[in-house]
Design a protein that fits this description.
It contains 30 helices and 33 strands. Helices cover 40% and strands 20% of the residues. The longest helix has 34 residues, at 509-542. The strands form nine sheets. The chain has an eight-stranded mixed beta sheet, with helices on one face. Strands 19-20-21-23-22 form a five-stranded mixed beta sheet, with helices on one face. Strands 12-13-18-15 form a four-stranded antiparallel beta sheet, with no helix packed on it. By secondary structure, it is of the alpha+beta class. The chain binds ligand BES and zinc ion. Zinc ion is lined by residues 428, 432, 451, 454.
């Protein structure tokens, strides 16, 4: 019995005993050491050939192992002596430089230096310099790790993990082996080729385990570590942690190093074999990546399962789940005939809420086959829902782990938006199986390679499922609100960042949403067929590899025979480009001339004058001013210069320009447009997106016009333009025969965050007053229309999730929202009636939202009823907290503080925490309360949660990112809070990085 059996356990071998997986991997005995080393030599020689073989076809892993073992069994290479384990020697600082890029010492900046001051801001207690990591410092790993065997003895308070890795030095570098590992790991023992290594020959540093080159064999060797973990103490929710009674993992980006010492970087791809052992009553379910190849009972009520993932994968895709869960099962047959077993798991009481997730998964699988010819490559695809999760969901190979908010749904607990989100997030994680897992990222700076691309794929899928224009409008609203805001503040960065301190801070709207826009631009420039050709070449070239954004761009360019060199600037320049437009029509020459100029405003570290023009598709159409009909259908202009003129011939009449159709590039357009022109486009543009955008521009123009008045009193005394009222009236009049979802979107006013991005300095009071005033004035002027449409869209029959029904409900609830602005007793009754008679969460929550901003008896009744009927359902309670945090009432700060003391508030649960705090941070009047109480409430909460969960704290800290744009009083108050946060002793590097960037 030899340790190599770990890697060849399934293969019949000459002269070797079959390894029995019901027992943990045995230690090597001295007798086998010489034999082992001869195998190692052979492996080193074979390594490149084997790796290439594995890369050519990752499905041939079984062949790979057979090859390895057969050769091993037959080979008769002369054994070499093991490197002499040096006797006890004091650990000196003579080790060489770090081995991995992640530990490169050649950073070209010192990082963010932060002094920890006392609470009074006096003396400096400690000085910490967090290391900044640079994209250009990337170096390939000096080691490959072809195989990893992990044996877990699982327990919530103590888990013992034995990890055996086969490590291949790429070249004889004679440097220390520096493994990533954090203080969540307690090392119990370390062996190389079965020989115990003395603590004198390794060193545990803050974030690494450094093994001296003295004890490293020059050829392939086996490293075995035994570590202890405490999952129930892990409140960061990264690594192995307890969620309720379940144990689960989260490894992206750098969570694997919280589980075991490893080369935790996405370009080290390994084959994993995972043995899970646990008490059967507590953890009857044991899951990991890939296929369960063995399971069995053990003495003392224990059991085990052995999981083999046939694919090479980076450590961030590793996953384990152990628990006592309910589940539903189904199968999916791929076009080529593979039958994939599908399982979705959650807490037992929630199993009735899994059907929509299963439907979403099967639709996603079908769509990827139909659209890209991409089939599921797995025999088993499992999805697990957990209540404690930092993000939305995670694409671990064959074992996705989801925030339960993106899995569980039934009509009485989930809104239409929840149903849509589940569809989109299930699809997103499934699509990663190709874009992310089969082809992964070389380093974390390339994150948008997988995320931007996969977001674009999920957006495309959702628009095919639920309606192109509606989905596009929702995506652009999100982009403008979140990403444009980020681009205009201290956190602005290119979609492929140049440096980071905490990678977790770079899962941003820019990497994701702007990244998806960049992918969408390839598609617009190349056409759907050209884009698909590019994708095909990308997989042909890079399947099984860890690659870069440049590789993706090259595949798109080469597959289409085009030059996309200039397009690279989208990856390196931050900021939202601004396009200015001038146009003229020459009636005698029948020529229409359009001149576009582009500039990109300065962002941290990048001056406007240094930014170069970007290549972008501008989709335009021309409409007849007289008839409203289309003169020129959509045409893609390739815009590449700082200033460029496009001439349209044979234009028989003076046209109305419809620019940036479908929002063909993620830019801001500065274009003088009269109210009348916008009203014309609202009514006639043949591009549905632009019809909506015209209404949005007109609303924006009206609101910002009012916000520019001298005082709040002046705003309240103003009339809103009649053209605007008439345009809204016209669209409401078409309600019976127009798309309800689109109409509801055109009635929704732009949100305050998006409006704020358009102002050089934000006067909160005026901006809020202006938006509210416009809403109330429209409601007053069009009351009977809103009442008519409200009545017309009332529900009949039971809940159904489809585009027609979600559209109808949306329109119904937008009308309710307008009608509620008068804060009358009749309105309170209307909302309460809807609340009581609603047949689904969508209508019930909309009614509750209307009441939440209305200080009336019905408000308290409805909130109480809602709370009671939630019966402890976590996702419903989150809605209850969220709706109150978002209310428009004068004393929301006090109310939110009370809610934080509510017995159901949980600091340690990210969903619950965000339902109160993130929503409060987005409530502009409350967060920016003039006395600074909103700021203090949020910063106290940041400091508090940072001690448990830095990722959650760092995200909330971004509520302050726009502080420089506000009036001087608020600016000072916010700055003081930021300073208070950063002077907190023991503040995490995540939060420190965000706050330091804000203060810079
Ligand atoms: N890979 C991410 C999830 C992730 C990233 C988890 C970093 C932990 C740390 C996943 O594919 C993802 O992008 N999820 C999104 C949802 C998606 C629909 C955009 C998320 O979690 O927000
Ligand atoms: Zn993703």
């Amino acid at each position: 019995m030899t340790p190599l059996d770990v890697f060849t356990y399934k293969v019949p071998k000459v002269g070797l005993t079959k390894w029995d997986p019901t027992h943990a991997c045995p230690l090597i005995d001295g007798m086998h050491l010489v034999w082992l080393l001869s195998i190692c030599i052979m492996l080193a020689q074979m390594h490149n050939a084997i790796r290439n073989l594995a890369r050519q076809n990752v499905r041939s892993m079984r062949g790979f192992m057979t090859l390895q073992s057969n050769l091993g069994a037959r080979s008769n290479l002369s054994p070499i002596l093991p490197p002499r384990m040096k006797s006890a020697m004091a650990w000196t600082a003579t080790f060489g430089v770090g081995l991995t890029a992640a530990h490169s010492t050649q950073s070209n900046s010192a990082g963010v230096a932060v002094c920890h001051g006392s609470a009074e801001g006096g003396e400096v207690a400690t000085s910490v310099v967090d290391k900044e990591i640079f994209r250009l410092d990337y170096k390939p790993s000096l080691y490959n790790v072809p195989e990893i065997y992990m044996d877990f003895q699982l327990g919530a308070s103590s888990t013992i993990l034995t990890t055996t890795s086969l490590i291949h030095p790429v070249a004889n570098s004679n440097t220390d082996l520096v493994l990533d590992g954090e203080d969540s790991i307690k090392l119990r023992s370390l062996k190389i080729n079965g020989v115990l290594i003395s603590p004198d020959d390794y060193k545990i540093e803050e974030e690494t385990l450094r093994i001296s080159s003295r004890v490293l064999p020059p050829v392939a060797f086996k490293l075995e570590t035994v570590v202890e973990l405490q999952p129930d103490k892990n409140l960061q929710l990264a690594g192995l942690y307890a969620s309720g009674q379940m144990l689960c993992t989260q490894c992206e980006a750098l969570g694997f190093r919280r589980i075991t010492y490893s080369l935790d970087r996405p370009d080290v791809l390994s084959k994993y074999l995972v043995r899970l052992e646990a008490d059967k009553a507590t953890f009857p379910l044991l899951l990991s990546n890939g296929n369960k190849i063995q399971e069995g009972e053990l003495p003392e009520g224990r059991h085990f399962a052995l999981w083999e993932d046939p694919f090479l994968k980076p450590s961030y895709l590793f996953a384990v789940v152990a628990g006592n869960l309910g589940s539903i099962h189904d199968t999916y047959k791929t076009t080529s005939g593979r039958v994939v077993k599908l399982g979705i798991y959650c807490d037992k009481p929630d199993v009735g809420k899994l059907d929509h997730a299963m439907y979403s998964l099967k639709q996603s699988m079908k769509w990827d086959e139909d659209t890209f010819g991409l089939e599921c490559d797995l025999d088993v695809y499992n999805v697990v829902a957990t209540a404690d999760f930092n993000m939305g969901a995670m694409e671990n190979k064959g074992l996705n782990i989801f925030n339960s908010a993106y899995v569980l749904a039934n009509p009485t607990t989930a809104t239409d938006t929840d149903y849509e989100n589940i569809l989109g997030v299930i699809a997103h994680e499934y699509f990663h199986n190709w874009t992310g897992n089969r082809v992964t990222c070389r380093d974390w700076f390339q994150l948008t390679l997988k995320e931007g691309l996969t977001v674009h794929r999920d957006q495309w899928f959702s628009s095919d499922m639920t309606g192109l224009a509606v989905k596009r409008i929702a995506d652009v609203r999100g982009l403008r609100s979140r990403q444009f805001t980020e681009d205009a503040g201290p956190m602005a960065h290119p979609i492929r960042p140049d440096s980071y301190i905490s990678m977790d801070n770079f899962y941003t709207a820019t990497v994701y949403s702007k990244g998806a826009e960049v992918i969408r631009m390839y598609r617009t420039l190349l056409g759907d067929d050209g884009f698909k050709k590019g994708m095909k070449l990308y997989f042909q070239r890079h399947d099984g590899h860890a690659v870069t954004c440049d590789d993706f761009r090259a595949a798109m360019a080469d597959a289409n025979g085009v030059d996309l060199a200039q397009f690279e600037r989208w990856y390196s320049q931050a900021g939202t480009p601004v396009i200015t437009v001038s146009q003229s029509y020459d009636a005698s020459a029948k020529k229409f001339t359009l001149t576009l100029k582009q500039r990109t405003p300065s962002t941290p570290g990048q001056k406007q004058e240094d930014k170069k023009p970007l290549m972008m598709p501008i989709v335009v159409g021309l409409l007849s001013e007289k008839t409203g009909k289309e003169i020129l259908p959509s045409k893609v202009l390739k815009f590449t210069e700082a200033s460029e003129t496009f001439v349209f011939e044979n234009v028989m009449e003076k046209p109305v320009l419809s620019l940036l159709r479908g929002f063909s590039a993620p830019v801001n357009v500065e274009q003088e447009q009269s109210d009348a022109e916008l009203a014309f486009l609202m009514a006639h543009d043949t591009d549905t997106f632009n019809r909506w955008d015209a209404s949005n521009r007109l609303s924006t123009k009206v609101i910002l016009g009012l916000a520019g008045k001298q005082s709040v009193d002046d705003i309240l005394a103003s009339e809103i333009p009649q053209t605007y009222v008439d345009a809204v009236k016209t669209s409401l009049a078409t309600s019976a025969n127009s798309d309800a979802a689109l109409l509801s979107l055109s009635l929704q006013l732009p949100d305050l965050t998006t409006l704020a991005t358009m102002l050089a300095e934000v006067d909160v009071d005026k901006l809020v007053a202006a938006r509210n005033h416009v809403k109330k004035a429209l409601a007053r002027a069009l009351k009977s229309e809103f009442e008519r449409v409200y009545a017309q869209t009332v529900h009949k029959g039971s809940y159904e999730f489809n585009s027609a029904e979600t559209g109808r409900r949306r329109l119904h609830n937008v009308c309710l929202d307008y009608l509620s602005t008068d804060l009358s007793a009749a309105s309170a009754q209307r909302s309460k009636k809807q609340f009581d008679s609603a047949n689904c969460m969508t209508d019930r929550l909309a009614a509750l939202a209307a009441l939440a901003s209305h200080d009336c008896p019905e408000r308290d009744q409805a909130l109480e009823q809602f709370y009671k009927s939630a019966e402890g359902d976590a996702l419903v309670l989150n809605k209850w907290f969220g709706i109150q945090a978002l209310a428009d009432l004068p004393d929301v700060v006090a109310r939110a503080k009370n809610l934080k003391s509510h017995p159901d508030f949980l600091l340690s649960n990210p969903n619950r925490f965000r339902s109160l705090l993130t929503n409060f941070g987005m409530n502009m009047p409350a967060f920016h309360a003039a006395d600074g109480s909103g700021y203090k409430f949020v910063s106290d909460s940041i400091i508090e949660v940072d001690a448990l969960n830095p990722q959650v704290a760092a995200r909330l800290a971004q509520s302050f990112s726009q502080w420089k744009k506000f009036d001087s009083r608020r600016r000072d108050l916010m700055k003081a809070e930021l300073q208070r946060i950063i002077s907190t002793p023991t503040l995490s590097k995540d939060t420190k990085e965000v706050v330091a960037r804000c203060l810079k």
